[in-house]
Amino acid sequence: MWNAAKTIAVGVLAIMLSGCVSSVLSVDNKATQPIPAALLAEMSKKSMSPSAPILVRIFKQESELEIWKQDRSGRYALLKTYPMCRWSGKLGPKTTSGDRQAPEGFYHVSAGMLNPNSQYYLSFNLGYPNRLEAALGYSGDALMVHGACSSSGCYALTDEGVSEIYAVAREALRGGQGAFQVQAFPFRMTPQNMAKHRDDPNFAFWSDLKRGYDMFEVTRSQPKVSHCGRRYVFDTEFQGGEPRDPLAACPPVANEVHPAIASRAEADRLAMENLISTGTALSAHSYLDGGMHPSFRSLLERSGENALAKRTSLTSVPISRPSAALADPHSPRE
């Protein structure tokens, strides 16, 4: 009996170490909490309904998570920005189980991927690997956005922060949105950041992600995501329908790039090249292990790790934009 129990315990531990997984705990009412009144008031002010579709954007370098929501015009508008308490790994995509990398890419989260029984308060699964990543042979599972300010390949917020996000996502999915899109980026895809990281081995991949970033920035509409030619393809109609093999060459295209998107991409390219040619592009910092929003880093330095772990209130952690000196924060090893 003891040996059997020990074997089960070892198996459970092995699964938990493979990613930011959830454990089966007793369900309380944390997953059914209503959207906070202040956030409902903000929605009303911005002509949004609680049941309107949402979109999530994540930025590693800035350690921020954004919730966007459709307003009455049908376009997405920024509802709220949350400081991320921790993410692990470094800038770049996740490719292998155990690499501690938080994923980068485009994901879609359905109602079944919300986890009310999470070991880390509340969570939702990003759905890594997506179809492209699976075709490329990338491995890993249970990559989450969750609370508890602890990360091993996931994006961690405070418990209060993830509680708000969970409630907003739950109501959007109940309102009829089949799945909400999550766009996970290494950094805000500005000419300055692209120039700064121009020598990184992931630059081509990030240039690919930037196309989707630009489309959302210009149109404020959720980009349609396709996979072919070993890359992401956005807002594209193909002759003969959607590509079936993400690794095969892309089929002929039936539509043209939106002129405003093409104009933005060209302007950003020229700005990046100017930064490089004039020698004003910053150099990228090396990462030790992940990052943390400067607001939480300040709290950590002031009060220590234990205080950070206990602090769950967003209102007690002022959100400040990173300064140049804090643009690439290093989190302590967990």
TrEMBL record:
Pathway: Cell wall biogenesis; peptidoglycan biosynthesis. Residues 54-185 form the L,D-TPase catalytic domain. The active site is at H146 (proton donor/acceptor), C154 (nucleophile). Its EC number is 2.-.-.-. Residues 311-334 are annotated as: Disordered. CDD domains: YkuD_like. PROSITE patterns: LD_TPASE (PS52029), PROKAR_LIPOPROTEIN (PS51257). The keyword Zinc does not apply. GO terms for molecular function: transferase activity. It comes from the Bacteria. Keywords: Cell shape, Cell wall biogenesis/degradation, Peptidoglycan synthesis, Transferase. Belongs to the YkuD family. This is Murein L,D-transpeptidase family protein.
